[in-house]
Write a structure and sequence with these properties.
Distance between the termini: 26 Å
Oligomer: single chain
Mean pLDDT: 84
Radius of gyration: 14 Å
Number of helices: 2
Shape: globular
Largest sheet: 2 strands, antiparallel
Helix content: 10-25%
Number of domains: 1
């Protein structure tokens, strides 16, 4: 696809559970969703910054994310 980043897939929801970001719906037939979260991971695989939303409506503004990236570069 020509992307400059790696796409991740978690079909078994293993990573979602380990990171604590799975939202289980009331009825099991509805499946699960990932809680909105951002993880800044360095080249060695170390998580340097995390934000996990308390609601899908609230996410960090782009300026905050860019500031965290700049801080880690």
């Amino acid at each position: 696809m020509g992307a400059e980043f790696t796409f991740l897939s978690d079909p078994g929801l293993t990573l979602m559970d380990r990171l604590g970001i799975r939202y289980r719906r009331r009825h099991s037939s509805e499946g699960s969703l990932a809680v909105p979260a951002q993880f800044l991971v360095d080249r060695e695989g170390v998580i340097r910054w995390v934000t996990i939303a308390t609601t899908w409506r609230k996410r960090p503004p782009p300026g905050r994310v860019l500031a965290e990236i700049s801080r880690e570069v």
